[in-house]
Request: fold
Amino acid sequence: MANISILGEGSWGLGLAILLYNNRHHVKVWSIFPDKIEVLNKVRQNETALPGVIIPEAVEFTADVQETIEGSDVIVMAVASPYTRSTSKLIAPYVKSGQYIVNVAKGIENDTLMTLCQIVEQEVPQATVAVLSGPSHAEEVSRGIPTSCVVGTHKKEDAEYLQNLFMNDVFRVYTNPDMLGICIGGALKNVIALASGIADGLGYGDNSKAALITRGIAEIGRLGIAMGADPMTFVGLSGIGDLVVTCASMHSRNRRAGILIGKGYTKDAAMKEVQMVVEGVHSAKAAYLLSQKYHVEMPIVEQVNEILFHGKSPANAVKELMLRDKKIESDNIKWN
Reply:
């Protein structure tokens, strides 16, 4: 049994709290908002993020960050991506050398273009940082629906330790040394999911969605490889796996926001309607800047940025995508 602290009281943090409690670990959930901790202690559920899901009585809730960190074997970073750096700064004074921090959020920092794991490693250099990612809606994990994820670390033994910590008969965990690729796949799939939702909002069909998923993973893979990631990561759980589920499911806040934008909502109105952080909006600009930095063509990401930040109509963006110059599907496949 391990002492595990979850930072963040949102849907994914609570879903993992239930999973880890069911694995017989001691689990404590921290939030920076004392009022939310008070409600959780009283009603044992987050009625907005995970309605109907009751948190076991043995799971503790606290707003005391020092107590949370100092008593933990493993810290799970489940705050929304825009708050990864500020939360890392907050916990850094209390983290011991070698203490595990497992990042489970997905995003890229706009100002620095760093992945979330890179941010944690910069702010908490004494920690052993890992990433857990994959097609894993909290709504399903919290109810014990079979799910598979991947954990990435720099050292094999750390990955195997965390694999054993999270894995059970309904939550299968694979290991992968490519932390960069896992982080890139997790962040950029949210941008493609926005595009998929926009297509749904416009009334398009399965053909359009399949095209966006297929060409979306091509864009993500091109950028990831240019940044130094392994191409095989993008055909795995944190690549095509996470992309498919996020583009297809109504659990996906990114897809839901995209649907609203396709129907004519502004990005701000769509995010307000969804009532949760829409990570793809925060990652879209960073993804575009990365494409410019690494000289990688990413037309879907480019058009999503035009819609979100420059007022382009979704219908015109789709038309421009369809009328781009003719291309070969893969530069790696050669004619005889």
Notes: The chain has 15 helices and eight strands.
